[in-house]
């Protein structure tokens, strides 16, 4: 238990129960994940009309699909008849309609009810009143972001602003052309830790010298615990002996066409609350989407995105992917090592943040503010 009052060098974390209490997680589902814009699905994963993916957001299962006009659509994955889950697979493709596996109510790709057994014998039923429940959807960085709120917050103010605030320039992220990149690798991590431990870990670099030898070789300033995420406009420079953002510092894939000279040979990290981390390096973008499933379990889907011609060439991406895959594995192991201690009496009142971690307190304040909101 930290002694109170704390000396100025130290700031308090959240108490342990914020990471273990199922009621608190339930409140976060309702007040954070079901109210904010959540990065759900990569648009290119739904290349054809009828392709779909399902994702868990808060307490809802959300179905994202591509309509016949080519637009992405999101719906609650719940049949309007008696509530069966419409798509039971996490991904797939239907030909032209979504048919409930229970009694065969059938919806078109825009969610409209188009058929049901014996519907003709119920002339009083207005089909348009029994379509799938639509979920707000926006596209950014090549991903479908969805929001379950009845009145979604401004996308600009709650999502895009994170990149502007971090990079100090509204156009900076656009230079990576993320929406035009191709998927080089995707790894899904099933992390036995509360989602906030993962966010906090991503926000600080106090641990970098201890657990990230490969990353601190490529980005030497990380060895000092410097938190690149919180210095507006600053990207961590590659070491002088480093050719590219790869596991051994060897050559990468040059730089993306619109990356500026200032952005070249630098690493930038952006946290988009609550569940997205974007890492920008000259030749690729690494995007993490978190899906918090329980107070002690979070699935993190990580995409490595490269110039389409790099992926099409069949180039060996392994040394490039391996750097951040190792960082992920090192970070998630640290989070999993921390999670069990959250119920300990030693952590009843929480732990402490050192000066290079103090900005994590802003995240904690944000979480508390969301939970306190009506
Ligand atoms: Fe879907 Fe009956 S629950 S058709
Ligand atoms: Fe880390």
CATH architecture of the largest domain: Alpha-Beta Complex
Task: Tell how many strands the DSSP assignment holds.
Answer: 18
> What are the distinct ligands in this entry?
FE2/S2 (inorganic) cluster, fe (iii) ion
Low-confidence stretches: none
Strand order of the largest sheet: 2-11-10-5-4-3-6
The number of helical elements comes to 8
Write down the Rg.
22 Å
Q: For the record, give the distance between the C-alpha atoms at the N and C termini, rounded to a whole number.
A: 31 Å
What would CATH call the class of the largest domain?
A: Alpha Beta
Average predicted local confidence, pLDDT: 95
Helix/strand order:
EHEEEEEEEEEEHEHHHEEEEEHHEH
Q: What proportion of the residues form beta strands (DSSP E)?
A: 25-35%
Largest sheet: 7 strands, antiparallel
Notes on the protein architecture:
The chain has 374 residues and is of the alpha+beta class. The protein folds into two domains: 1-32 and 170-374, Naphthalene 1,2-dioxygenase Alpha Subunit, Chain A, domain 1; 37-152, Rieske Iron-sulfur Protein. Helix content is 22%, strand content 26%. The chain is built from eight helices and 18 strands. It has helices at residues 22-33, 155-167, 195-203, 208-211, 213-218, 308-312, 318-338, 360-372, and strands at residues 11-12, 37-42, 51-57, 60-66, 72-76, 91-93, 97-99, 106-108, 113-115, 134-140, 143-147, 182-191, 236-237, 266-272, 276-281, 284-294, 297-306, 352-353. The strands form four sheets. A seven-stranded antiparallel sheet has the order 2-11-10-5-4-3-6, with helices on one face. A hairpin with a 3-residue loop joins β14 (266-272) and β15 (276-281). The protein is globular and about 75 Å long. The model has no long low-confidence stretch (mean pLDDT 95).
């Amino acid at each position: 238990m930290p002694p109170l009052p704390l000396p100025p060098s130290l700031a308090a974390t959240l108490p342990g129960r914020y990471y273990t209490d199922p009621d608190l997680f339930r409140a976060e589902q309702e007040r954070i994940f079901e109210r904010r814009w959540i990065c759900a699905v990569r648009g290119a994963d739904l290349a054809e009309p009828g392709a779909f993916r399902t994702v868990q957001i808060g307490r809802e299962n959300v179905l994202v699909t591509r309509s016949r006009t080519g637009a992405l659509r999101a719906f609650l994955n719940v049949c309007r008849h008696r509530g069966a889950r419409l798509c039971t697979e996490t991904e797939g493709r239907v030909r032209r309609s979504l048919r409930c596996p229970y009694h065969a109510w059938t919806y078109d790709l825009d969610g409209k009810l188009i058929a049901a057994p014996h519907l003709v014998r119920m002339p009083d039923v207005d089909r348009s009143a029994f379509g799938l429940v639509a979920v707000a959807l926006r596209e950014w960085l090549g991903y479908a972001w969805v929001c379950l709120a009845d009145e979604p917050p401004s996308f600009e103010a709650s999502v895009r602003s994170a990149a502007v605030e971090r990079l100090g320039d509204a156009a900076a992220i656009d230079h990576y052309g993320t929406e035009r990149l191709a998927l080089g690798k995707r790894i899904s991590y099933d992390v036995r830790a509360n989602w906030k431990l993962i966010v906090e870990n991503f926000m600080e670099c106090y641990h970098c010298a201890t657990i990230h030898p490969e990353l601190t070789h490529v980005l030497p300033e990380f060895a000092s615990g410097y938190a690149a995420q919180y210095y507006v406009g600053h990207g961590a420079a590659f070491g002088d002996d480093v050719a590219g953002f790869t596991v051994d510092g060897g050559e990468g894939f040059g730089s993306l066409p619109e990356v500026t000279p200032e952005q070249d040979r630098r690493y930038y990290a952006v946290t988009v609350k609550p569940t997205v981390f974007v890492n920008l390096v000259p030749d690729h973008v690494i995007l993490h989407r978190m899906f918090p499933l329980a107070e002690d379990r979070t699935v993190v889907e990580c995409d490595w995105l490269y110039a389409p011609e790099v992926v099409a060439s069949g180039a060996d991406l392994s040394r490039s992917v391996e750097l951040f895959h190792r960082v992920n594995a090192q970070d998630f192991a640290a989070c999993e090592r921390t999670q069990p201690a959250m119920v300990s009496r030693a952590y009843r009142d929480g732990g402490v943040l050192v000066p290079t971690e103090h900005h994590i307190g802003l995240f904690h304040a944000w979480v508390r503010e969301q939970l306190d909101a009506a």
